[in-house]
Amino acid sequence: MANSKRTLFLKRRLRVRNKLRKVNTGKLRLSVHRSNKNISAQLIDDVSGVTLVSASSLEKDLGVVGKNNIEAAAKVGAAVAERAVKAGHTEAYFDRGGFLFHGKVKALAEAAREGGLKV
């Protein structure tokens, strides 16, 4: 049986995370999750296993509830960058998970960079 989309996604996610673990020198990780309806991002400290800041398209104050498009992803990226800078964090590795760096994921990363987060 050929590889399903799900197994290919899981392989890609493990490959990305393993590469990040090899080069991670104590930096934070900006992890992205994209579903069919929403997108979210978290700034994670892997040393202590704690999520420091997060943002999601489900938050009403971002004004993108129910929208799953590039503009919503950009607002989420800007929000997570703003919260991270406010908390005193300016550098992180970008963990795209198994998602391709294209479209919404790319828009989120670029908005986070414009917001002052070195990703």
Automatic annotation (TrEMBL):
Subunit structure and binding partners: Part of the 50S ribosomal subunit; part of the 5S rRNA/L5/L18/L25 subcomplex. Contacts the 5S and 23S rRNAs.
InterPro entries, per database record: Ribosomal_L18 (IPR057268), Ribosomal_uL18_bac-type (IPR004389), Ribosomal_uL18_bac/plant/anim (IPR005484)
UniProt GO cellular component terms: cytosolic large ribosomal subunit
Keyword RNA-binding in annotation: yes
Presence of the UniProt keyword Heme in the record: no
Gene3D superfamilies: 3.30.420.100
A biological process from GO: translation
GO molecular function list: 5S rRNA binding; structural constituent of ribosome
Any Pfam family the entry gives: Ribosomal_L18p
PANTHER family documented for this protein: 39S RIBOSOMAL PROTEIN L18, MITOCHONDRIAL, LARGE RIBOSOMAL SUBUNIT PROTEIN UL18M
NCBIfam families attached to this UniProt entry: L18_bact
Protein name per UniProt: Large ribosomal subunit protein uL18
Organism of derivation: Thalassovita mediterranea
Protein's job: This is one of the proteins that bind and probably mediate the attachment of the 5S RNA into the large ribosomal subunit, where it forms part of the central protuberance.
